[in-house]
Amino acid sequence: MKIKLTFWRVVFAVIMTLGIYSTIIRYFRGLGAVSNMSDQFPWGFWIGFDCLCGVMLAAGGFCIVGAVYLFNVESLHSVVRPAVLTAFLGYVLFIVGLLFDLGRPWFIWHQLIYMNPHSVMFEVGMCVMTYTTVLFFEFLPNVFERFNLNWPTKIIKKIYPVLIVLGILLSTLHQSSLGSLYLIMPSKLHPFWYSPALPFFFFGSAVAVGLAMTIFESTQSAKALGRQLELSVLVRLGGALLVALWVNALLRFEDFFHRGLLGQIIKPSYEAYFLWLELTLSFVIPITLLSFKKVRLSPSGLYLASVISLFGFITNRLNVALIGFETYVGHHYVPKWTEFSVTLMIVAMGFFLFGVAVKYLPIFPEEKPTERLLRQLKPEALVGTPVLTHAGD
Amino acid sequence: MSKALLYDATMCIGCKQCESACAEQNKLPYDDTVAAESEQSAHKFTVVKTMDGKFMRRLCMHCETPACASVCPVGALHKTKEGPVVYDVWKCIGCRYCMTACAFSQPKYEWNALNPRVRKCIMCPDRIAAGKQTACAEICPTGATKFGEREDLIKEAKQRFADNPTNYIPRIYGLTEVGGTSVLIISDENPEQYGYLSAAKVGDTPMPEYTGKVMERIPDFIPVWSLVLGGIYWISHRREEVAAAEAAEEKAKQGGE
Asked: What is the pTM of this model?
């Protein structure tokens, strides 16, 4: 077998090589050698990105499952599987990330025996562990179907209501609790980001990100698999995203107003620049874009708005985890290249596993043979039509 | 009754004997290089800071309700009834939440170790159990660091303010800060100048209360939210069932005609 050299495969190989090098440094030279974390910055880029952003980006699973199974939004049925897959991979990779960040990862199981119920971290840990198990069961039918096994799927179907309710309950708890982690640091975290409402912000933005992420991944995989985009689905998600962004934006505004910070946030300062960047990317641009019907009905418009908002919320998490502490600490924290390299490796693994799963498992619904034939004969013919037929949805 | 330390900066002569006694007690290296280090670290639990010929000690404050103990997911840190906040290394998973949560940034980390530990002053619990003073208090030649019952030390501090009002800013740092600490600091300067967070900034609220407000709701939240979600599921699927049953009935009727 010959492996074709493509641009992305080369990139992947480079990322993996550097990542493995950094991994070796991490486990044989220690956290100090692999990262720029210090006693002043005990939580660095791995907590900010791998943990906070990782869990946030995996929120699509519970959002879509909730919409489809709790609220019967039938039209979203076709994205349940990719959303659950993304979530499952997201959580597994989050745990992989933790194994890098924890100082004594070999004792991670201590969580199960030395429990401290007062600790937010304990709650997050338990929720994430249980939820990953739930996601595993929600994902399993894909595998059974692939091998034409019906009876195990039937068993899982029986407990499906429990899985769904449990999944959403656990997600509500730990998505918000990731924000609660910072409630105990009122004197350290900059007031732009320290708010008693942090758990609400973290939960609210997770819902928005869940929707944006579903748009992103279905567009991306449609492109990769050379498939037709289900535009009616994207349009639905786009509408919901717009609402979610508005709710989040209003919550944030209300919080700034309530804490009398409106005057401060418009004054230029180091923190203000990062706040502006965050608010512009997560709210101003995507809300403006999505307010145009033309954008809401175009796949590329929806894709663009989603990706920009994703960058906005990633900026938010990094602001909370890193930028917000710099004034207290008194100096800047810039991650070492090996920290980025480990994160990149984990993200690349995510893309790779997603690609493999989509290729070998029935994640996306089968295309009707006639459709495929038509598209192959006249690719451009089909691209435009669904826009019009589903425009009214 | 719990034990505490009273540090009186006006009596300190900056001899750093507390530093070396602490190092010896905790089996840490101590030489001129370490003595010259002005910041605490995994190998320096306490430091005597110097500024314009005046001194200020820094060490773990041993809070009455410690943030570090409340945030530790595996309960590796806890406050003993004698006063010290101690660390069980064998439980620790290395999440470093204690370090970020501590308002005084006291826990330090062995960044270059392969099985790293959190390090901080643990207030010599073994010595206290044996009825002795902490190593730093025992060696202090001037009595600037004094060991005793917290209540007695507070009385003593107030007495010193009364006896020499011009010598002090009459405020005990640690009396009410973060709900009170077992290390009490008095001085003729503001401890803030030496890296202590201002009293206004740390506040008097015990740190665990900030998260407690949220955490205490969770036991109620879980059953309520499960019921709501389960209810929504039941209703939306009930509708489906009804629709399916009606459709089947309709079909049966049509088939019968």
From this structure: 0.90
